[in-house]
Amino acid sequence: MLKDSLEAALDSTLKVSDIAYVKNQADEYTFRKVVTTSRFTSVLILLDTKLNPDTVFFGEGFQMLSQMTGTFANPVNIGRCMDDLSPYSHYPVEDYRTVYNMLLLKKESMWTLLGFTSCNKYTGFFRIFNDGTLHVCMSLEGQLFNSGDIINTETFVIMEGTDKQQLLEKFAKLITKHHPPLKIKERPCTWCSWYAYYDHVRDSDIIENADKSGELDFIDYIQIDDGYESHMGDWLEYSDSFSKGLDDCIAKIAEKGKRPSIWVAPFIVSGESDIVKNHSDWLATDMDGNLIPAGYLTYGGWRDLPWYVLDFSNDEVVNHIHNIFNFFVKKLRIRYFKLDACYWGAIKGYLFRGNISRIENYRRGIKAILDAIGDDAILSGCNAPIWPSLGLFHTMRISDDTERNHYRTAQKAKETFNRLWMNNHLWINDPDALCIKDLDGQHVEANDVHLQIATVLICGGVVTVGDRLTDYSKEDQALLRRIKDYTYYVKEVTADEDYSTFTLNLKSRKERIKIYINWTEANQTILIGQNSVNFMNNEPLSSEYILPPTDTLIVIEH
Fold first, then answer.
1. What is the CATH number of the domain that holds 545?
2. Which of 95, 316, 404, 456 suits 415 as a labelling partner, its CA being 20 to 30 A distant?
3. Distance (Å, whole) CA 11 – CA 8
4. pLDDT tens-digit map of 12-35
């Protein structure tokens, strides 16, 4: 069995590397390394072995936008922004590919999972070589060590089984022992401003949609997503587009019986911000103590550049972030926060003055925010480092941003399906906003609407809409209400291996949902059970349905 050979290789590698280990009753490994200056690097190789180059694998990413599959000989990118390629990596390595946190291997009918079940201080990763070589590693970047220091690593497990879903659920349970999930009292249904207005949103746009939201009883929150701040980092200094500040918008939202939600990127500050100009000692530096923007180390960001990163080993920074969120909660009565650009709080290459790791810097920042907002608020992560976020968020974005085109819609669907196992275990999954209406420069086809809706239903997490609310017809409103209702009833999801057929069992309902996705360029014939209706229009379906290329059918079976 592969598990046995991997464990033997692990034992052999650790002996060569002078790394001790303890194995607990759950078969989790904890590693210990004594630092000697002559034989120490910032990366520990825990396992070095050789597999068949044709071994099929799936590998997780360090951050939201990265996933990989294929074989060792031929890796295939799933995500748009891979951790080990440009623009996120300025120095891609040609000899191997890198995946993080969890690696799934398949041999015939057997699945083998190698994964890290904790992430408090360091992060685990895997090197995938074309010839079949596999390295399991632990990254220690962000800290300086002295001879004699003792490093206790994160926990690691090797598991196997014939049922991939059961294997992932068992893995999730091990993770939650180290990182208990936050309790959430509700699953928010939200209108998000970003996908209709992006950073050009004005206070009048928010108010117009808040006015319209009064007709849409399924929407709970109105989310102001970027555009309100003068610069990244100056969250309480407002842009010209919000000349009256946020108070007026918040009041208009409340008048319609809705609740406000706000977007913040807490780890980054623009070069034009007050913090860079007056508090440069709050910022992380390179390993030589020089102040450098994030773009020197990784992808520099998408607007208001350059970005710098806050150093949460500094108590003044912790107090600063605490005060910002305390203002949002107590003055503006905001209880739902979307945190974006989270990845930058844990990027490789920065040194923190308190000699903490990059993972510790990130987790300190989120914990400061949680302390400020209280137990009854909702914290949602976006563009986040996945494992460093464990136990710190109520909801988590698990796929790329929505765009109104087929390529992005299909990409997002696959990313979401690969992370279904996280839902209701690590947090509530967020598959991003439904966008079913056209926008200037973006046109959404019917097949992409079907796949977007299917993805949200299968995800069984939170529901967000991103179109201008004034664009919705009465039929659109009824459809969105039905999507929300059914999504929150999803109890159990099963899927075939290529994600072409899904069965959704529902709580407190006698019916179930079947979803068929045609990933091909040819028609497919779908056999339909009796008493079945099309989810999109509630019309009865005949016993056979011709599913067009790249289209999706959502069936309610009574």
1. 2.60.40.1180
2. 95
3. 5
4. 999 999 999 999 988 899 999 998
